[in-house]
Write a structure and sequence with these properties.
By secondary structure, this protein is an alpha+beta fold. The chain has one domain: 2-C-methyl-D-erythritol 2,4-cyclodiphosphate synthase (60s Ribosomal Protein L30, Chain: A), CATH 3.30.1330.50. It contains 5 helices and 7 strands, in the order ββββαααβαβαβ. The protein has helices at residues 43-55, 61-64, 77-90, 113-124, 142-145, and strands at residues 5-18, 22-24, 27-29, 33-35, 93-103, 131-136, 149-160. It has a 5-stranded mixed beta sheet. A two-stranded antiparallel ribbon has the order 2-3. A hairpin with a 2-residue loop joins strand 2 and strand 3. Helix 1 runs parallel beside helix 3 (77-90). Bound molecules: magnesium ion (MG). Magnesium ion is lined by residues 12, 14, 37, 43, 46.
């Protein structure tokens, strides 16, 4: 018999690029750069999707939403998160809580954390206080520190429903 609770981990990184909108946690930032990717490249939401899928023992979002499929070109990653939660529910699981860390040198993320939490909570079917979200920089080190990429880590607990 499997435990009624499961934990999962997710990680994602996308390179910064001029001429694309910057979307993190479903929130659009006023920024001279965005993130490169097939979808809206929302690294935070992708890390959360992978944490949820991992908790359920399922393959990663690349498996469910391949970047070779034109259906997912520029897609809003909140739709992907909603589909991940639906896939979990079909298997008898629901998110219990999510905790995530965004790593970016620019822009300043702290003023928008509450907004991101609200959007993510809605997509995941959770209360806002079941979403933890922190932002940090890489202190100028490596590609993230030089502003060449933005990354996110996430853990998620899921429960039997
Ligand atoms: Mg991604």
């Amino acid at each position: 018999m499997s435990a009624p609770l499961r934990i999962g981990h997710g990680y994602d990184i996308h390179r910064t690029v001029a001429g694309r909108p910057l979307v993190l946690g479903g929130v659009k930032f006023d920024s001279p750069f965005g993130l490169d990717g097939h979808s809206d490249a929302d690294a935070l939401t992708h890390a959360i999707c992978d944490a949820l899928l991992g908790a359920a023992g399922l393959p990663d979002i690349g498996h469910f939403f391949p970047n070779t499929d034109p259906a997912y070109k520029n897609i809003d990653s909140q739709l992907l998160l909603q589909r991940v939660v639906a896939a979990l529910r079909e298997r008898g699981w629901a998110p219990a809580n999510i905790d995530a860390t965004l790593i970016a040198e620019q822009p300043k993320l702290a003023p928008r954390l509450a907004e991101m939490k609200t959007v993510l909570a809605r997509s995941a079917g959770l209360a806002v206080d079941a979403i933890g979200l922190k932002a940090t920089t890489n202190e100028g080190s490596d590609d993230i520190g030089r502003g060449l990429a933005i990354a996110a880590h996430a853990v998620a607990l899921i429960q039997k429903v």
